[in-house]
Amino acid sequence: MSVITASSTVTLHFTIKLKDGSVADSTHNMGKPAKFSMGDGSLSPNFEQCLIGLQTGDSKAIELDAEDAFGMANPDFIQYMDKTRFSGQDLEVGTIMAFSGPDGSEIPGIISEVNGESVKVDFNHPLAGQAVIFDVEILNVD
Question: Digits of tens for pLDDT over the chain (142 positions)?
Fold first, then answer.
């Protein structure tokens, strides 16, 4: 049995739940597990620490405060844009849209308000500011 260390590559299924028990995301819905390397930045350092020592076949519920999960909402990540930038698009509050980042990458933004000619877009992670529970099921450790 392989044990997760700071240099492991891990394949796992996860389900992210909010404190009220509602499911926010799950690899089971996607039909395939997630694979990542410890320390590659895809998970918070605190979450990685909770995985160290787990083995193939282990399941664990990991509770994380907002700071240790997706971070706190950052007011700098909220932008107001002119409605003309969205010509022909249906602007509905709660819609997630792709925007071009400074480096050309796609950044998801959530339409949080439409007021006259102004559109408020929130680029924070949808789960920022929320405590979550990760149910993990370790499938493989390399």
Answer: 699 999 999 999 999 999 999 999 999 988 899 999 999 988 888 899 999 999 999 999 999 999 999 899 999 999 999 999 988 788 999 999 999 888 888 989 999 999 999 999 999 998 999 999 999 999 999 9
The pTM of the full predicted model, rounded to 2 decimals, is 0.77
Residue in 63, 71, 80, 43 with CA at minimum distance from that of residue 132: 63
Query: Which residues of the chain are in CATH 2.40.10.330 domains?
Result: 75-122
Delimiting residues of CATH 3.10.50.40 domain(s) in the chain: 9-71+127-141
Which CATH fold topology does 75-122 show?
Answer: Thrombin, subunit H (2.40.10)
Report how far residue 63's alpha carbon sits from residue 83's, in angstroms, rounded to the nearest whole number: 40
Q: What would the two tokens of residue 125 be?
A: 């992670």
Q: Please name the fold of domain 9-71+127-141.
A: Chitinase A; domain 3 (3.10.50)
**Residue 61: partners with Cβ closer than 8 Å, 6 or more residues away:** 133, 134, 135, 136
Tell me the C-alpha distance between 77 and 92, whole Å: 19
Report the C-alpha gap between 108 and 100 in whole angstroms: 9
